[in-house]
Amino acid sequence: MNELIISTFNNLGSVTATAKQLNISYRQVNKILVENKVQGIVRKRKKIEFNVDYFQNIDSEVKAYFVGFIHADGSVFTTKQGKTTLSIAIHKKDKEILEKLVIALDLPNFYIEQVPVKEQVVFRTSVKRFVQNLVDVKSLTILDRIPKHLLPHFIRGVFDGDGTIYSKYAKGKYRYYYAGFIGYTSFMKFIKENVPIKFSLRNIASKGISRIETYSKEDLLNFYDFMYTNSTIYLNRKHAKFMDMKFIYSTPTTTRETTYMVEDIV
Length: 266
Fold this sequence. Notes:
Layout: H1 2-12, H2 15-22, H3 26-35, H4 61-73, E1 74-78, E2 84-91, H5 95-105, E3 112-115, E4 120-125, H6 128-132, H7 151-162, E5 163-169, E6 175-184, H8 185-194, E7 200-203, E8 209-214, H9 217-228, H10 236-249, E9 263-265
Antiparallel strand pairs: 1-2, 2-4, 3-4, 5-6, 5-9, 6-8, 7-8
Helix pairs in contact: 1-2, 2-3, 4-7, 9-10
């Protein structure tokens, strides 16, 4: 273990980064480095290079998906130090999406930070050229950069961030599903007008925020086809829920399992 710690430190040039990479404490790393007379040597931190222009052109399924996901669950803000920063904070159960993002960017996993108190994981960067390509990600102007044939992948990214699929048993009768999004009213209207599904639009208490939903079996099946046809990246738990829906709706009503009222929200 000592050799691994020293080797990792030599590659990264940082005690903090080494601790994160190996999932051990800062104190443990520092102790090993001091005992082996490694700590204290002036070292230049290894520069981590990645494609800072990755989102300059949104020309692939993966890019469109991540732009949609960032639109839903990301934020671009300016720090007190004047740095424009991208931050994506999600529940730790969905860490797989951030792992796929750092793989796409060819970044090491320690870019994903744990936030134990909030049970969250966070991806954050202030690399100027990278973030500048996403400054419009929260506005409707981002849609001008999404080619029409990639729109389903963008919408799937939004859904994995801000969408939900529900299932219920209707008082001991057959199981049914409904799905929808919640977000800025202007963007909900865009989805309603550009996705070939009949969504109902509902305003909620927060000003400028609305919800769109669909309950129709036909629309839900079409929604699955719209989002997942030719897809290779998605949030597994929501995709699995849609697969359950497809199975249930392909089973005759008379043979569906009955049970007490339960609710399953994803």
